[in-house]
Amino acid sequence: MRQFLRTTACICLSTLLCIQPVAYADQDLPDIGTAAAGTLTIAQELEYGDAYMRILRSSSPIISDPVLDEYITSLGHQLVANANDVKTPFHFHLIRDRSVNAFAFFGGYVVANTGLFLHANNESELASVFAHEISHITQRHLARHMEDQARRTPLTIAALVGSLLLAIASPEAGIAAVNATTAGSMQATINYTRSNEQEADRFGIATLARAGYDPEGMPDFFGHLADQYRYASTPPPMLLSHPLPKERLTEAKNRAAQYPKVNKPISLDFHLAQARVIARYAGIDSTQSLDWFARHLKKASPIIKPTLEYGQALVYIDNKKPEQAEAILTKLLANDPYNNFYLDAASDLYINKKQYDKALDLLKKALQRKPNNPVLTVNYANVLMEANRSKEALPILQRFTHDHPDETVGWSLLADANAKLLDEAEQLAAQAELFALRANWNKAISNYTRSSQLAKLGSLQQARYDARIDQLRLEQQRFSALK
User: Fold this and answer.
1) Segment 34-69, tens digit of pLDDT
2) Using the 8-state DSSP alphabet, how is residue 176 labeled?
3) Integer Cα distance of 251 and 362 in angstroms
4) Looking at 47, 50, 201, 416, which residue is catalytic?
5) Is 197 flagged in the annotation as binding?
6) Contact at 8 Å (CB) between 282 and 291?
């Protein structure tokens, strides 16, 4: 299914990976994750994290792509399952930006730029970025940094965090109020200390190894990144904020060498995700992307070739060349009929060809094997809507948004379905949830108020809208109190 995007200015909330000299044995890692427990509670961190994420949705080009979301969430949770001191749920998101960047913030949120896929050579290298950021969260580095700031200033922790919230955006508008210079200053304000970076490096490599990835992924990624930008006039944000002198890379290699060598099999999903980013999120035109795929196909191994062909198929679909795309996808699905990357692309293809029953048949069979799978469910509902069967899509989307209330793609589709069914009250309600997810509380409440006015007086529907208005007002008050 084609992506749902909101593209505006991008901001940074935290810092990136950095490699530092450390001790090596995994058992030498101290239990220091609770050092900030007396400053910010886990509940407070979750509340701040939710607020930051709502602002980020309104101010940055967050990608709402079910296929990519499923991939990075799976990768991230595999790492989290092998991390130390996990005390919060984790959420993983992508920003459409070609620069190499990633950051973590309160409440278990890890956000990465799509540019990481353009520079990582394999899944272990990509996983090393996520492992480092996960370690910043598990060790509560931002909370501990705030505690240190509070000791040196007359401000309280709440004031420090609240001022950061205000610096990011206007709570009323929910739109970014910072330019590139301000964003850089804010990043410097909350920059992790040298010891924080050391901890994140060593915990990250340990997590990487326990999760079955190659611990060499971290030094390898930064090594070739440093080589690539050694003489560049404008290095990526990561290298501007955290230069990588030779001794840091050496120390990272030494630490990774303390773990057994891992010969991890090639990840098909990583290369499919990479191809999807190049085809749809790299900001290059179809001619350039097709040329990239063609050049890499000439030297690709048999394992990698299907992923590059998948990328070609996406470009053909997006440029209204269904015949070329179908020839590729038919072959790919014959070899791997339940691959979500292929099924998602096939859904787009058959929608373009108006062969809705063909798409529904493919998805229905896949859902029998993977019931309630988010990628398949969203695609199935989308095909029904394109086939003018929105009434059938409606209960599917209602269930999906109930199970995944933070997924903007579900609410977008639900709003569209209700619009096609001429149900203005429910359309406004779904749009209100999108506004709330972007911290636009006034518009969310306004939408629900209008929905309540449209509903039958005294009906259960009106009572539901009024109850949601009360909830949103409380959420707005809590959000405002954070500043």
Assistant:
1) 444 446 788 888 988 899 899 889 888 999 999 999
2) B
3) 50
4) 201
5) yes
6) no
Is pLDDT at 437 greater than 90 in this prediction?
A: yes
In a domain, 273, yes or no: no
Over the stretch 209-235, which tens digit does the pLDDT of each residue have? 999 999 999 888 878 777 766 655 555
Residue 137 belongs to a domain: yes
Angstrom CA distances, 245 to 226, 229, 242, 277, stand at 9, 12, 9, 30
Q: How far apart are CA 369 and CA 340, in angstroms?
A: 12
**Which residues form the domain of 235?**
4-256
State pTM to two decimals: 0.85
Count of domains for the chain = 1
**Category of 39 on φ-ψ map: left (φ > 0), alpha (ψ -120 to 50) or beta:** alpha
Structure tokens at 200: 């994140």
**Two tokens, residue 311:** 């990328």
Is 132 among the annotated ligand-binding positions? yes
Q: Is the dihedral of CA 472, 475, 481, 483 positive or negative?
A: negative
Q: Is 136 annotated as a binding residue?
A: yes
Measured CA to CA in angstroms, residue 302 lies from 122, 266, 274, 291, 466 at distances of: 16, 11, 17, 19, 58
65 is catalytic: no
Secondary structure (DSSP) of 11-32: ---S-----------GGG----
159, 253, 156, 161: which is closest to 214 by C-alpha?
A: 253
Residue that has been written with the tokens 């990976």 in this structure: 17
Within 10 angstroms of residue 341's Cβ, the number of other Cβ atoms is 26
Is residue 414, in this structure, part of any structural domain at all? no
225 occurs within a structural domain:
yes
Of 69, 97, 133, 433, which one is the catalytic site residue? Answer: 133
Q: Positive or negative CA dihedral for 439, 441, 447, 452? A: positive
Q: Is the pLDDT of residue 264 over 50?
A: yes
Contact (CB, 8 A) for 92 and 72:
yes
CA–CA dist 224, 53 (Å, integer): 31
- Residue 112 φ then ψ, to 5°: -130, 150
Which two three-digit tokens encode residue 136? 């910043």
Task: Read off the amino acid at residue 433.
Answer: E
133 is catalytic: yes
